[in-house]
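Re: the 300-residue chain
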Amino acid sequence: MTRLPPLFLLAAAALAAAWNAVDTRRDAVPSPRRAPPLRVVSISPSTTECAFALGLGNRLVGVTASCDHPAEARALPKVGGPTADLERIVALRPDLVIGNGRLVGKTLDRIAALGIPTWGSASRSLADLFSDLEGLAQALGDAEAGRRLAGALRARGDRLRAALAEVPSDRRPRVLIEYWPDPLWTAGGGTSLDDAVALAGGRNAAASRLTGWGTVAWESVLAEPPDFFLLAHDNPEMCARRPGWESLRAVREGRVIPVNRDHFARETPRMVEGIESLAKILHPDQFQRRQVLQDHKQPP
């Protein structure tokens, strides 16, 4: 069996452990009397990206080496790699530290123990992502920015539901999104990814085998193959080495699609972009038909 890279193994274990945690972190919601935080450190790529999406990236004075989007984040001072360096964080004199509460909750606890306010996201679902955007914006002192962005994303989701409302359940393909091929790492039921696949007009092939994040046996995939494989990794050659891979109908018919990992692995506004792209992959005719109808409605 192919061995997982050490960094991926650590991240996967952290994600699985975080999924089972019951604690949620939305701590630092300032009172109206407190001045908005102006020196913010983000210790998770998702919260860094969300801060910029809210138009509040100029508040960030430090991020981790993993915070690679948007490009402006890469130029900020680094407070560690996968593990945040508390000394570097303290040296930046932050008035708020933000992060993914399910992945770095213990680090946020240690920072809070030093008297520094913290805020952590707690997303388990797509609806949580929108609520977390509103909560982060409030913690950053601009609640209106959160309402505006979350509202726009919810509206995009509503348009997708309307576009696919007439698609019957038997025409909603089974989709398996792989984050690593061996062992096959994916997200099951009760996750934001499960919500994403459903909103795109598909069915999560791992939902019946797995709750939360984890691995599924390749033999179980062969027993009930998905209609689409979405590869959120750069190792298609590892997929080809799996027994029975070439015989699968999705493989023979070209329904193995590389996707941007960040669109599905990070709970950020870009996830909605990924869902929209996935919907067009799963139901191209539906969107072509809607475009034709819209074109006919245009005045001559």
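The longest strand covers residues 96-100.
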